[in-house]
Design brief:
The protein is α/β, with parallel strands linked by helices and about 300 residues long. The protein folds into 2 domains: about 130 residues, D-Maltodextrin-Binding Protein, domain 2 (3-Layer(aba) Sandwich), CATH 3.40.190; about 100 residues, D-Maltodextrin-Binding Protein, domain 2, CATH 3.40.190. Helices cover about 40% and strands about 20% of the residues. It has a 5-stranded mixed β-sheet with strand order 2-1-3-13-4, with helices on both faces. β1, α2 and β2 form a beta-alpha-beta unit. It is globular. The N terminus is likely disordered.
Length: about 300
């Protein structure tokens, strides 16, 4: 009888120990995720935040934080070594690449989505299309009234981005052709805004306004704005950034890629993140949901191949 009591007592102790271990294991803190930082383009901010939200939910090993500030800011931070990834709405310049090399940084470029810069006006403006030359003459201050491009007798009010913005720099290069023969600069009267949403809001309220934003933001404007067609020249057909085929085949004059940059070929958590952004069910679908356009299958595969 005594042996049975001792055995029962031992059994109870064993059960208690096992239960205690189970509780201890279940209450142990989860392994902390590796943190990835990404800084840059305001145009890409909403898109990348949407990607990060899904990625952070799905990944058990990594989490990503996204900050805006402009493409130039992101690239500078990458060169300084203070961010893992830079997001940019333009390609790095030769000067930036040289600066990166001087700092021991080896930028690797990934195209992650396609955008068409949308030229927007107030909904009450009757102008429906502009050539690149007309657009340049508006933004360099040569044209100051809408009647100079077939519109109403109304002063043109310019809205644009700040110099650190990739969109500002892209527009300056492609439309104004700054630094090239016959090129020009932004008019001093342009009202610089900190982001796409700010430009959208101003154009909605200002009858004489014109602005430029990423196509995803233009889609958000709905009936409160006009999205203008753009012609490469007076003899060319006019295309809209809302026309996916025209943006993808670059018939639309202001088509461009969105980029991520890493220092060297990404590994670990950074590689996992970039792979998610490039995946069809991840970042590419989110790009469509955010109003951008997904990469073609050939470009997508080319980018995935860079990951090894």
């Amino acid at each position: 009888m005594q042996k049975k009591i001792i055995f029962a007592a031992v059994a109870v102790v064993v059960v208690i120990i096992i239960a205690g271990l189970a509780v201890a294991l279940s209450s142990s803190p989860a392994k902390e995720k590796t943190k990835v930082t990404e800084i840059g383009s305001d145009t890409m901010l909403e898109l990348m935040q949407m990607c990060a939200e899904d990625f952070n939910d799905e990944s058990s090993t990594a989490s990503v934080s996204i900050t805006g500030g402009g493409s130039g800011v992101g690239i500078t931070k990458l060169i300084e070594g203070s961010t893992d990834v830079a997001q940019a709405s333009r390609a790095m310049t030769d000067a930036e690449k040289q600066n990166a090399s001087a700092h021991g940084i080896d930028p690797v470029e990934f195209k992650v989505a396609i955008d068409g810069i949308a030229i927007i006006t107030n909904k009450d403006n009757s102008v429906t299309s502009l050539t690149l030359d007309q657009l340049a003459n508006i933004y360099n201050g040569t044209y100051t009234n809408w009647n100079q491009v077939g519109g109403p007798d109304l002063e043109i009010v310019l809205y644009g981005r700040q110099p650190t913005s990739g969109t500002y720099q892209y527009f300056e290069e492609v439309v104004l052709k700054k630094g090239k023969t016959g090129g020009s600069e932004y008019s001093a009267t342009m009202k610089q805004q900190t982001g796409n949403q700010q430009i959208l809001s101003q154009v909605e309220q200002d009858a004489g306004a014109i602005g430029y934003v990423g196509v995803g933001y233009a889609k958000q404007g709905g009936s409160n704005i006009h999205v203008l067609d753009v012609q490469k020249d007076s003899g060319s057909a006019a295309y809209s950034p809302l026309d996916e085929a025209a943006v993808l085949n670059q018939s639309y004059a202001l088509s461009r890629y969105m980029y991520l940059y890493t220092d060297g070929a990404p590994t670990g958590a950074v590689k996992e993140w970039v792979e998610f952004v490039l995946s069809s069910s991840g970042g590419q679908q989110i790009a469509i949901d955010a109003g951008f356009y997904a990469l073609s299958s050939s470009v997508q595969q080319e980018m995935l191949n860079k990951l090894g």
